[in-house]
Design a protein that fits this description.
By secondary structure, this protein is mainly alpha-helical. It contains nine helices and four strands, in the order αβααααααβαββα.
């Protein structure tokens, strides 16, 4: 009997367990499998497999390895106002953050010196790493401080602190967006490899969710090859998108064929 928690949980993917599985074990699990993009839920599959006597590797999952490869190849393509060398540096950091499982905060910290080294607009050192929009925000803050009567020394100190805050915010936004891009691309690849039949859009459900993304969620389960109402095939859809896409309806024959071919 499968672990009783399996039927109540949404699973990330059997593709995340890159090991030869007994066909009977795959068949027993296949009726419960649904992809959701959660490492905690993947752990439930791992627990069940360990209980069944399977050998589960501790290294990067198949999906994570694909995400790292995607980041190395494609990350930072859409980041504006940077040099090509900086774009390559961002891609390298994103891939490294994924491979070392640093998460968004840790990866963002690694990004800051890469962004600060960029001199595409020859900004003063205070503004290094900021795009034009963030520079304008800091300059506006500086004018407000001067108008409020702060001394030049106080203004310089507060402006430097605000610039560091803006650099932190930019690095975190880039890290979150690029890591989400890479992970989603990897999950979509795995879903296609395994032949999942349906997908569903999931928002975080707060007031910041775009109306177009609410419409995607309201569409419910749709065929995997069908675009969502917003026109995209998967998340993220736009800068700052926090949505995820789940998959379900895996075909056991597809799983076995993918394993036999070495695709997972």
């Amino acid at each position: 009997m499968p672990d009783p928690r399996l039927s109540a949980e949404i699973y990330e993917s059997i593709a995340d367990i890159a090991i030869p599985l007994d066909p009977q074990m795959v068949e027993a699990l296949s009726s419960h499998i649904e992809v959701a993009g959660s490492a905690a839920k993947t752990q439930l599959i791992r627990d069940a497999l360990l209980a069944a006597g399977a050998e589960v590797p501790k290294d990067l999952t198949a999906t994570a390895r694909i995400a790292v490869a995607w980041a190395n190849e494609y990350a930072a393509r859409l980041v504006a106002e940077i040099q090509d060398s900086t774009r390559a540096g961002i891609a390298e950091v994103i891939a490294d953050g994924l491979e070392r499982q640093k998460g968004v905060p840790g990866t963002a910290r690694m990004l800051r010196p890469v962004l600060s080294a960029d001199d595409v607009t020859e900004r003063v050192r205070t503004f290094a790493g900021l795009n034009k929009q963030r520079v304008q925000s800091v300059l506006k803050y500086e004018k407000e401080l001067i108008k409020a009567g702060y001394s030049p020394k106080q203004v310089a100190k507060k402006v430097a602190r605000e610039a560091r805050h803006q650099l932190k915010a930019r690095s975190e936004l880039i890290a979150q967006q690029e890591m989400h891009n890479a992970t989603s691309a990897a999950q979509a690849h795995e879903a296609a490899t395994l032949g999942f039949k349906e997908k569903r859009w999931q928002t975080v459900g707060d007031e910041r969710v775009r109306e177009s993304h609410r419409a995607n969620e309201q569409a419910g389960w749709i065929p995997t090859e069908q675009p969502f109402p917003s026109g995209g095939q998967t998340s993220p859809d736009g800068v700052g998108c926090r949505c995820v896409v789940s998959f379900r309806g895996v075909d056991t024959d597809s799983v076995l064929a993918a394993m036999q071919s070495g695709a997972i």
